[in-house]
Design a protein that fits this description.
The complex is a heterodimer of chains A (about 110) and B (about 900). With about 110 residues, chain A is α+β, with helices and mostly antiparallel strands. Chain A is about 55% helix and about 15% strand. Chain B is α+β, with helices and mostly antiparallel strands. The chains are: A alpha+beta (about 110), B alpha+beta (about 900). The interface between A and B is medium-sized, with 24 and 27 residues.
Chain lengths: ~110, ~900
């Protein structure tokens, strides 16, 4: 078993990004940091994957970007959840719960 | 996922590329900066922190590339890049590009023009409201032949009982009338329509008003005319004062009440009536009896319905079945065993009886054209293969630099697409020229010029585009197979010179396929041509050579029956005395002509076979000299006599051999009698039997036919026929002068020879069109195949140049060299001929279902087409063979 940070479980990055943005709008580094913190240092987000996800979700209309001054007075692009984004998050969360339950059932059965 | 944000986001990325790039740049920089600060807070020096952040984030350019590639615009951009590169490559090889584009344009053009013709004939809906729901009504009686001519009384009954399924039910009867009144009379195609015709079709007048539902119910009551738009333009110069003007229809006074809208051409797909009149006016104007609106035996009108929305064909058929059965019970004499049905309007072209003949022919010709497209694409694929050998180095270098197989294939496909787009544009241009040429052809239907709308619409463009994509796929496929399946090291090492045995086999196979396709098309063309020749050689039972025809209608010149009869009597007398005239006669209908008469017969003593309806028989109305003039021999009984048969109270008839044998098999035809179902009280006595002759169709069995004497059965429009030994150009002016002398001002509808008249739509014209079209496609296919053979043989000869040079240096004779090259070509041609021969043997029987195909087993088309292909292919092989034989071996061997 590895103890260091690992890559995020495949296919869950979108959901995790949406979840972090559900609390408040964040810039790219903020999202990465938040995911790392919230997972207790288990997950580390790859910058490349993160920006691809931003671009994809912006295109899909789930998040909207806005340039603002950051805490330390640097210009940064803050992403916020849109309405269709929160719908998407709800749907993804539910689906994830279903899958986890199913996997747990299989593991318990053995 | 919202499509709109996808599109706008992509477009923004494309159009404001720099802005979007710099945004991404700034985002990434800020990310790295934040990470650096974080590391510094953890205790690293600035330089260390920056290094660590960089390391953690990875290559910024790689990230940017990944982000860019996430949207669709990235693929689009790459495609544009490839297309630009492809264009440069094509510009570098102008000879290849021009040849390829022209070849593709030929193939696509042939397909687009043919499809345009098919679309005009079969696909384009009528220009009226909801044309997609229009259907033509048909009926059968006691399982007899399919018919579409209803009685006016039936129209009223059906209309009243089908209001639930039809939102419109209109009837019409085509006519041909002399329009005069301004000193000039001309015969034009017309349409007699039911009162609700325009209102229910949803047609609005261009000028004045149209015929209203109240008109056309009482015979002769509403002498009004609506002009067709094109006739208003051509004869009246688009004069807006035309409404209210008087004119003469076949000599009867009438008033113009309005003009139909532009583009409206009646409810038959291919005709364009010049004028529309109320149905009831057919009684006085077309010479129908006044009882034609009530007599259920006189069936002249065609019915067109529009299904209510939500009503399906099957539902409508079920209702019509009930209506037919009800009418049969109500009127057993006329409507017994009546089964009414309907066909979608586009499937009923040109007539419901044709049973999809036209569609079948269209499918066959579209298939042949598709073969031509295949041939032209294969030609281009073949030259592209040669180019691929040359470009192998480029491809291998690109592959070595990391371009994937898909990427290389895409590049090839894009180049083919560029060629296909140019070829498609050229093809559409070619097709528009073809259509313009086709529009001038003198085609006619029902005596009127065909109204073929040959202007291009989306269907033609879509078809041309599909053809272009197909050809692009074919052009890509062969070189792709070869260019991307090569071993890098081997290809780079060979310096782009050598060709592999595999690619040669592919090329040879493609050319063999071309020969096979061309041979198949030529055999089909041969079958059509042979059928035309056999049909022309067919013995018609009459002798058309040396017979002149003049179509006249004294009624259109204002003459009543008595005056017309007098004119005809004097005309016959004088015409037979003209120098060179042997005999003269009058006939209401011509063999294979547009006019014909038919009626259901009641024959005492004859019972139709069980389950068969009473016989429906064609007839003609002729003067006594008809049989002598057309040289139809009499078998028994007497001939007509213009004088003694003058008493209309003792009707007589002559019958053909088939009719005599069918109804009176014991040889008692002369003296027997029969009646027509429409006028059962008039009993005709058979006075003579004549030999069979063809009257209504070039192919098929000869059916019963009878003749009535003009002396008893008057029809104003007659054809004066004169048998003469003089050439027509001498005789026709003589007859014109005679007519001008006897009846000054009487219009002559047409003047010509009987042989010309046999070349109409019901005669040889369909045979000629089929043979001509097939021959054109076959010629194109042969040229393309020969180019293919020539190309592959001369290419492979060039590849073997060194070997041949060595052979010659060692003493091989020129003839041996020619044989060497020819042998290779012959192997390919032989393979193609065998495959093509087999394919046409399999395909030919399906041609036999076309009316214009007399025989599919006649050996001549197969033999002639095969000989032609082999001979011309040999010639194509001989050219490179001779060039090889003339090589100077010392030069060849030194050259390498």
């Amino acid at each position: 078993m590895t103890q260091g940070p690992t890559e995020i479980v495949q296919g869950t990055l979108d959901m995790l990004v949406l979840k972090t943005l559900a609390l408040e709008p964040l810039h790219g580094y903020g999202v990465a940091l938040r995911i790392e913190q919230m997972s207790g240092g288990v997950f580390r987000v790859n910058a490349g994957s993160l920006f691809v996800a931003f671009r994809r979700m912006e295109r899909a209309g789930w998040i909207a970007g806005e340039w603002r001054a950051s805490d330390n007075n640097r210009r940064a692009k803050y992403y916020a959840l849109t309405r269709s984004g929160s719908e998407k998050l709800a749907a993804e969360t539910q689906e994830w719960g279903r899958q986890i339950a199913a996997i747990a059932k299989i593991l318990e059965a053995c | 996922m919202s499509l709109a944000t996808q599109v706008t986001g992509g477009l923004r990325a494309l159009l404001r590329k720099r802005h979007v790039e710099s945004e991404l740049d700034e985002e990434l920089t800020s990310f790295v900066a934040s990470l650096t600060e974080e590391r510094m807070r953890a205790g690293m020096s600035e330089a260390e922190a920056r290094r660590a952040a960089r390391l953690e984030v990875g290559g910024l350019d790689a990230i940017k590339e990944k982000v860019r590639a996430a949207g669709w615009e990235a693929t689009f951009g790459a495609l544009c890049h490839d297309a630009g590169f492809g264009l440069r490559m094509l510009r570098k090889a102008p000879a290849f590009t021009v040849t390829a584009v022209l070849t593709l344009a030929l193939g696509i053009g042939a397909n687009a023009s043919l499809f345009n013709l098919v679309a005009a004939l079969l696909l384009r809906p009528l220009p009226v409201q909801d044309a997609g729901r229009l259907a033509v009504l048909t009926f059968q009686k006691q399982g007899g032949p399919l018919q579409d001519n209803f009685a006016a009384a039936q129209y009223t009954d059906i209309r009243n009982q089908t209001k639930g399924i039809f939102s419109a039910l209109v009837g019409h009867q085509e006519g041909s009338d002399g329009m005069g009144g301004d000193g000039r009379v001309e015969r034009v195609p017309t349409d007699y329509v039911t009162g609700s015709y325009f209102a229910e079709l949803g047609v609005r007048p261009a000028l004045g008003r149209l015929i209203t539902p109240a008109e056309g119910a009482v015979a002769g009551a509403d002498p009004v005319v609506v002009l067709g738009y094109s006739y208003w333009q051509s004869r009246f110069g688009g004069d807006r004062g035309v409404v209210g003007r008087k004119l003469a229809v076949n000599g009867h006074p009438a008033t113009i009440i309005g003009v139909a809208p532009r583009g409206f051409h009646g409810v038959r797909a291919l005709t364009d009536p010049r004028a529309y009149m109320p149905l009831a006016m057919a009684a006085p104007w077309e010479g129908f009896g006044t009882d034609f609106l009530t007599n259920r035996g006189i069936r002249n009108i065609e019915l067109l319905a529009r299904l209510r929305s939500g009503v399906g064909l099957e539902q409508a058929r079920a209702v019509l079945g009930v209506v037919g059965a009800r009418l049969g019970r109500q009127f057993p004499a006329s409507d017994g065993g009546l089964r009414i049905s309907l066909l979608p309007e586009t499937l009923a072209r040109p007539t419901p009886q044709s049973g999809g003949q036209l569609a079948r022919a269209a499918r066959i010709f579209l298939l042949l054209a598709a073969l031509v497209l295949l041939l032209s694409s294969v030609n281009v694929a073949n030259i592209a293969l040669v180019r691929a050998t040359v470009r192998r180095r480029e491809m291998t270098i690109r592959a070595a630099l990391g371009a994937g197989r898909r990427r290389l294939l895409r590049q090839l496909f894009i180049e083919s697409c560029l060629l296909a787009v140019a070829g498609g544009a050229g093809g559409v241009l070619l097709a528009s020229c073809c259509s313009a040429a086709l529009a001038v052809l003198p085609l006619s239907a029902h005596g009127a010029p065909l109204a073929l709308d040959l202007s291009f619409d989306w269907r033609v463009f879509a078809y041309a585009a599909a053809a272009a994509i197909l050809s692009a796929a074919i052009v890509t496929w062969a070189p792709a197979l070869q260019a991307t399946s090569t071993n890098l090291a081997v290809a780079l090492g060979s310096g782009g010179r050598g060709a592999t045995a595999g690619s040669d086999r592919l090329r040879n196979g493609l050319v063999a396929a071309q020969i096979a396709a061309a041979l198949t098309i030529l055999i089909v063309a041969g079958i059509f041509a042979r059928s035309l020749a056999l049909a022309q050689r067919e013995r018609f039972g009459f002798d058309p050579a040396g017979v002149l025809d003049f179509t006249l209608d004294p009624a259109a010149g204002g003459l009543a029956e008595a005056a017309a009869r007098d004119l005809y009597r004097r005309l016959l007398e004088r015409a037979s005395q003209l120098p060179g005239a042997e005999s003269a006669c009058l006939a209401a209908a011509l063999p294979m002509g547009e006019t014909y008469y038919e009626n259901t017969l009641q024959v005492p003593g004859y019972l139709p076979p069980p389950g068969q309806p009473a016989p429906l028989v064609d007839y003609d109305i002729v003067s006594a000299g008809y049989f002598a003039t057309l040289r139809i021999p009499r078998i028994s009984g007497r001939a007509f006599d213009d004088v003694s048969d003058g008493d209309a109270r003792r009707p007589v008839a002559m019958v053909n051999r088939t009719m005599a044998a069918r109804f009176w098999p014991r040889g008692a035809a002369v003296g027997a009698s029969f009646a027509m179902a429409s006028h059962a009280d008039r009993v005709f006595r058979v006075v003579g039997v004549v030999e069979d002759s063809r009257a209504v169709g070039i192919t098929g069995a000869i059916e019963p036919f009878f003749y009535l004497p003009l002396a008893q059965q008057f029809a104003s429009e007659e054809v004066l026929q004169i048998r003469t030994s003089q050439p027509p150009e001498v005789m026709i002016p003589l007859v014109r002068r005679l007519l001008a002398d006897l009846a000054p001002g009487l219009p002559i509808w047409s003047a010509g020879t009987l042989e010309d008249a046999l070349g109409g739509m019901r005669g040889f014209l369909p045979f000629k069109i089929a043979a001509g079209l097939a021959a054109g496609l076959g010629f194109l296919a042969l040229i393309l195949a020969l180019v293919g053979v020539y190309g592959v043989v001369s290419y492979s000869a060039r590849q073997r140049q060194r070997e041949i040079g060595i052979r010659m240096a060692l003493g091989a004779e020129r003839r041996a060299v020619v044989r060497l090259v020819l042998r290779e070509g012959l192997a390919i041609v032989g393979l193609g001929v065998v495959a093509g021969g087999l394919a046409s043997l399999v395909a030919a029987p399906s041609l036999g279902r076309l009316a214009t195909v007399v025989t599919t087993s006649d050996p001549w088309p197969y033999a002639a087409a095969t000989a032609g292909v082999v001979a011309s292919a040999l010639a194509a092989c001989y050219l490179p063979a001779r060039r090889m034989a003339r090589l100077d071996p010392t030069q060849v061997l030194r050259g390498d």
